[in-house]
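To: structure desk
From: M.T.
Subject: fold request, one chain
Message: Could you run this one when you get a chance? Sequence is below, nothing fancy, just the single chain.
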Amino acid sequence: MKKTKKAIVFGANGQAEVVSYLLEADSEYEIVAFCVSKAYRENDEFMNKPLVDFEGIEGIYPPADYEMYVSLSYADQNKVRERFYHEAKAKGYTLLTYISSKTTCWTDKIGDNTFIFEDNTIQPFVEIGNNVILWSGNHIGHHSVVEDNVFISSHVVVSGHCRIGANTFIGVNSTLRDGIAIGKFNTLGAGCLMVKPTHDDKIYIGTKAAEYVKKE
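Reply: Done. Structure tokens follow.
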């Protein structure tokens, strides 16, 4: 694919490697450099490209000439990725969104710094917020809403008319029945079957998705 834009990836780990590979192979973006926080930078290169400090990066790669993707995981309920998303925007960067050419997507209501991997099916009238990650092979049913800073892992089924609250993580092979709302800052463990709405700031585990209560 012809490269018409230049971008920097925030991150220097396995996820950043995968993100860089997909952007180079399947988008208009040329990855020119990587960045991390100064306290975490141990080398000057990553994947044979410059690795620089996020602090002051705008002086090396001006936002007028380069876009950025903040490639961070679901750590601390996606709050770390959310923090650097806002910091990158404050520096003036346009935060790119990637939708795999191997995904079926029937909506254009998708925010920035959102990364949609291969083999997702996104039905009509779906809305996806900013700073969202949809890993491989999910189904997002019609009229559903995925709020900001959500991480959906793989082979998750979200039925129609669902709402997933901000900063929620959904583990592999989970299923949401139609018409339910998942609260903000939820963690749904692998294989959860969700048939009822959930409260904010909760953890759900097991095939019957019982609320997890930490033992004192």
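Reply (cont.): The CA atoms of residues 124 and 189 lie 27 Å apart. Let me know if you need anything else for the meeting.
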